[in-house]
Design goal:
The complex is a heterotrimer of chains A (about 220), B (about 210) and C (about 240).
Chain A lengths: L1 H12 L7 H17 L3 H22 L3 H8 L2 H7 L4 H30 L6 H26 L7 H27 L5 H30 L1
Helix pairs in contact in A: 1-6, 2-3, 2-6, 3-6, 3-7, 3-8, 6-7, 6-9, 7-8, 7-9, 8-9
Chain B lengths: L2 E10 L2 E11 L4 E5 L6 H9 L6 E5 L5 E4 L11 H11 L6 H6 L15 H15 L3 E5 L7 H16 L3 E5 L9 E5 L14 H7 L1
Parallel strand pairs in B: 3-7, 3-8, 5-6, 6-7
Antiparallel strand pairs in B: 1-2, 1-4
Helix pairs in contact in B: 2-4
Chain C lengths: L8 H32 L14 H28 L2 H33 L7 H22 L3 H31 L17 H44 L1
Classes of the chains: A mainly alpha (about 220), B alpha/beta (about 210), C mainly alpha (about 240).
């Protein structure tokens, strides 16, 4: 299991691994927003938590189809499915690798981008915390979507169509927590709900994803 | 007994293509599957490997007994030969990759990225992966594709060594490996007959 | 005689061909009666005028939009557990009907909302939930379309339906939280059917029954089509083998 994690991390950071692509995308999306809504500080400060959450979510989406598609192409997925490690575990490890290479960097980059969007001082802690709690759910849900579409030649667009509706609860609670934090309100409930979603998806979805992969391999 | 298949039926795309396949494989034995393209060699191997469900019959295989090798080698282009091999060794709970490297004549290439290997060298690396699994039964699908004559000899040599050490191999290949130990198993007699109307129970009654 | 006998495609085709005309006739009868009663023989609402009468389409279609997903969930589970082809084909057949019902509910809601609230659309929790339901239907149908092998598609869509149901419920509560947490309670509420007068309630019950019957008729019809399509596929495959 550890070997798989290390391999995925190593692959992501080698040339062509796509590490940093999501981060760059996140940056660009955030930079584009003021061009769309105008440079007025008050407006930006008000929408900053929501924009950063939506931006992080879309950046996360960008790298989902790499989770299994490459392993499927070169036959690794067949070999992993016949290897003496449970496929649910493979899925869980791959979600973790995806979070470490996408969700975590996005979380760390978000406060910097918050400066660009004039995020109020009180909001930084809650934005980072909500992303830290929420992005693992984004990775796990995305892994499930990638497992559903792994057998398809051009599954990228379909993957977005399947995964985005599943992201709605995470987005709502995550952005709500960040927004409340920025306005100086209590953030307990949305953060707890966010943690609940993450815990629930991590516990259940790897099994569903493994089942989908088995179906797609046969 | 390493593998015993009894009255097995396998399907591709929902259609039964092989029916009533029975074979046994003991320690030190090798079986070469033969038959025209599309008869179902790959499907049979994948079914035995557990990648797809069987339609009927029984497969007896000791748990954690088989290592499967398909058309693709499962290599990562940006990892070196050594990294690729170490990864699979660790997945199978093994640690020593040196014997596999030397058996497939890959020592000089050990630190080269897999993307810089020729097709034949990649295939050799794929076969070296089998060696590091430590499994006694090998399920090989076209193992000699893109190998030159010398490499085929190298491969035959490692299969022979594997058999001599008490292993077994079930493979689908068209070329003669020069393995005296191997028995030919022709799949043509097991080709499934298309079901006639009314046959095959109620399901068929509506669907075919 | 068990219910699973109808899971046999042959038996299903026989029974449904017998039942379909009756269900269709009954659906037409109930719907016509309910709609005519509702449109022409109920008084105008003192506040809403005649616009209130769209309730006879809006409420039943909204109800069926949800019930249809519930039915797909049950039939998908039956497929995953008992591998009955008719079951999953019924789920496949129901999805386009469900998405149509969702669209009807959304559109009639907009038409109703414009004169009442002065806006076509508001991010009211209930409206938003239906929009999300629409997205879930869209994904489910798209996955069926994308996967070529019918059994693979059946398995994948069933898993998606299962997981999607959980997330749809979760979204429903998230949306309630989202628009009632910070802000005051939704100023636009659709909880009208809970206090409609009897003179509206009776025709409303009738149209709801009519929509259920219409739904059953359409699902039967479409499931029969799906079964025939599968049979055609199987025949072609056999042709290729021979």
């Amino acid at each position: 299991m550890l070997a798989l994690l290390l391999r995925d991390l190593r692959l992501a950071t080698r040339a062509g691994g796509g590490f940093g692509l999501s981060l760059a995308f996140f940056l660009i999306v955030t930079v584009l927003v003021p061009f769309g809504v105008g440079p007025e500080g008050g407006t930006l400060a008000r929408i900053a938590p929501g924009i950063l959450w939506v931006g992080a979510l879309l950046s996360c989406l960008l790298s989902l189809d790499r989770i299994f598609a490459l392993d499927r192409e070169d036959g690794s997925l067949d070999l992993l499915a016949t290897a003496p490690i449970p496929l649910d575990g493979v899925v869980a490890v791959k979600s973790l690798a995806h979070w470490l290479t996408t969700g975590l960097p996005l979380t760390l980059a978000a406060p910097v981008l918050g400066v660009l969007l004039n995020l109020p001082q009180s909001g930084f802690l809650w934005l980072t915390l909500s992303l830290l709690l929420g992005t693992p759910a984004l990775s796990v849900i995305g892994t499930f979507g990638a497992a559903l579409t792994v057998g398809l030649k051009r599954g990228g667009l379909l993957l977005s169509l399947l995964v985005l509706p599943l992201y709605i609860p995470t987005l709502i609670f995550g952005a709500e927590a960040a927004k409340r934090g920025a306005e100086g309100l209590a953030t307990g409930t949305p953060l707890l709900m966010l943690a609940g979603i993450t815990a629930g998806t991590v516990a259940i979805l790897p099994f569903a994803a493994a089942a989908a992969i088995r179906v797609n391999l046969r | 007994m390493m593998l015993s298949v009894h009255d097995l039926a396998v399907a591709r795309g929902g259609i039964t293509i092989l029916d009533g396949v029975s074979l046994t494989l003991g320690a030190g034995e090798a079986l070469v599957l033969r038959g025209p393209n599309g008869i179902g060699k790959t499907t049979l191997l994948r079914t035995i490997a557990g990648l797809q469900p069987d339609i009927a019959g029984r497969i007896d295989l000791p748990p954690e007994g088989a290592a499967y090798s398909g058309h693709a080698d499962g290599l990562k282009a940006t990892l070196t030969v050594r990294e690729n091999l170490t990864f699979w060794a660790r997945i199978y709970g093994q640690s020593d990759i040196a014997p596999a490297l030397s058996a497939m004549n890959l020592e000089t290439l050990a630190d080269r990225d897999a993307q810089n290997l020729s097709a034949g060298q990649k295939r050799r690396l794929g076969l070296a992966r089998l060696l590091v699994t430590g499994r006694r039964l090998w399920l090989l699908d076209e193992p000699t594709v893109s190998l030159d004559t010398a490499s085929v000899g190298l491969f035959a040599e490692s299969v022979r060594a594997h058999l001599a050490a008490g292993g077994a191999a079930l493979m689908a290949t068209h070329i003669d490996l020069g393995l005296d130990e191997a028995t030919i198993f022709d799949l043509a007699p097991f080709r499934a007959k298309p079901p006639r109307p009314g046959q095959g129970g109620d399901f068929d009654g509506a669907f075919a | 005689m068990s219910i699973w006998e109808y899971a046999n495609p042959k038996k299903f085709m026989q029974t449904s061909s017998w039942a379909l005309p009756w269900v269709t006739g009954l659906a037409v009868l109930t719907l016509l009666t309910g709609l005519v009663w509702g449109f022409f023989f109920t008084p105008d609402d003192f506040r809403q005028g005649s616009t209130v009468k769209i309730i006879f389409i809006h409420v039943p279609s909204a109800m069926m939009a949800i019930n249809c997903w519930a039915m797909m969930l049950v039939t998908s589970l039956v497929w995953l557990i008992r591998r009955h082809h008719v079951s999953v084909l019924a789920a496949k057949a129901a999805a386009p009907i469900g998405i149509t019902m969702t669209l009807i509910a959304l559109f009639t809601g907009a038409i109703w909302g414009q004169p009442m609230w002065g806006t076509w659309w508001a991010w009211d929790p209930r409206l938003t939930s239906f929009l999300i339901l629409f997205l879930f239907y869209l994904g489910y149908i798209a996955l069926w379309e994308a996967v070529e092998d019918p059994d693979t598609a059946a398995d994948l869509t069933s898993v998606l339906c299962l997981v999607g149901s959980v997330f749809a419920l979760l979204s429903r509560y998230a949306v309630l939280f989202w628009n009632q947490g910070l802000h005051q309670g939704a100023s636009l509420s659709l909880d009208k059917e809970e206090h409609v007068a009897d003179q509206f309630a009776h025709p409303l019950w009738l149209t709801m029954a009519g929509f259920v019957l219409l739904f059953v008729a359409l699902v039967l019809l479409r499931t029969r089509t799906e079964i025939r399509a599968r049979r055609l596929r199987a025949l072609e495959a056999r042709e290729r083998m021979a």
